[in-house]
Amino acid sequence: MSKDPYQTLGVGRNASQDDIQKAYRKLAKQLHPDLNPGDKQAEERFKQVSAAYGLLGDEEKRARYDRGEIDETGAERPQHHFYRDFADTGTRHKYSGTSGLGDFEDVSDLFGDLFGRGARGRARSPRQRGADIRYHLKVDFLDAVRGAKRRISMPDGVDLDLSIPPGVRDGQVLRLKGKGMPGSNGGQAGDALIEIEVAEHPLFRRKDNDIHLDLPISIDEAVLGGKVDVPTLSGKVSMKLPKGASSGQTLRLRGKGVQPRGRAPGDQLVHLKIVMPSKIDADLEDFMKSWQDKHRYDPRSNMKGAL
């Protein structure tokens, strides 16, 4: 992997978090192992991109990396200023002084007492938590609404079974504890962070937990009303149209929206849209002319005061 995660993602150091996310998504789609079977170079590049996003996609880790506190793997960098704070070369002992450290003949004595000693007297390295791995997963709209099971291949080649909870949102991040990079010196493993992208649906739109649907109706259905079939997340239902329905009118189907686990379901909002026949025949034209002569009305009368 490049020493600079910014270069790996192809962004500048002043890039916004949105820019970093967009760059990662673009590269992840190009390099994903499912789209490049057998291409070891693409697989390795995918791992590098995922690791870079695992660092820069987390604002706190990105800030610590920019300050030099952690390296490109997320591991802590040694803090060399410790020596400068306490060194005093004007005394008899190399690291003695007036700050209570004069009893140590060598700085290794100090580290030995602070961190303990190994079998040969060396200072023990502190435990380091493994880096988180970020993964982008695009799911079908209905799978996101209803919940689903998916098997995914992580950047390190490990397959994981993922439970997508009902009602998951676009951009939501699912966390798999301990499924990230292994820790060092006995430290715990990082997590796998699965960012969900919900695909669009040809009919349904989601807003909060409500589902919105545009429903075409014919001119006779609009005038006469009656029963019409309406698609919902759980299948078709019969809905009653009122007489004289208008385009833009909204009808509500209660409880037919998204139901996240442990919460009440939203509603489905049906937006009516009158669609004329593709060809106006003579019968319809004659009827409308006759009707117009007797029942003319102005549907734009409420706009006159605003013009």
Your description of this structure?
It is a single chain. This protein is α+β, with helices and mostly antiparallel strands and 307 residues long. Among the domains are: 81-115, no CATH class; 128-200, HSP40/DNAj peptide-binding domain, CATH 2.60.260; 204-295, Urease metallochaperone UreE, N-terminal domain (HSP40/DNAj peptide-binding domain, Sandwich). The protein is 28% helix and 22% strand. The chain has helices spanning 5-9, 17-31, 40-56, 59-66, 81-86, 107-115, 141-146, 219-224, 282-295; strands at residues 133-139, 148-153, 159-164, 173-176, 192-198, 204-207, 210-217, 226-232, 235-241, 250-253, 268-274. Strands 6-7-11-10 form a four-stranded mixed sheet. A three-stranded mixed sheet has the order 1-5-4. Strands 2-3 form a two-stranded antiparallel sheet. Helix 2 (17-31) packs antiparallel against helix 3. The longest helix is centred in the first third of the chain and has 17 residues, at 40-56.
For the secondary structure, the number of strands is 11
pLDDT averaged over residues:
80
Write the element-wise H/E pattern from the N-terminal end onward.
Answer: HHHHHHEHEEEEEEHEEEEH
Largest sheet: 4 strands, mixed
Biggest sheet strand line-up? 6-7-11-10
Q: What fraction of the residues are assigned to beta strands by DSSP? A: 15-25%
Q: What's the level 1 CATH class of the domain at 204-295? A: Mainly Beta
CATH architecture of the domain at 204-295: Sandwich
Low-confidence stretches: 80-121
Q: Could you say which overall geometry the principal axes of the C-alpha atoms support? A: elongated
**Annotated CATH homologous superfamily of the domain at 204-295:** Urease metallochaperone UreE, N-terminal domain
Instruction: Please give the share of residues in helix.
Output: 25-40%
Number of helices: 9
Oligomer: single chain
Distance between the termini: 64 Å
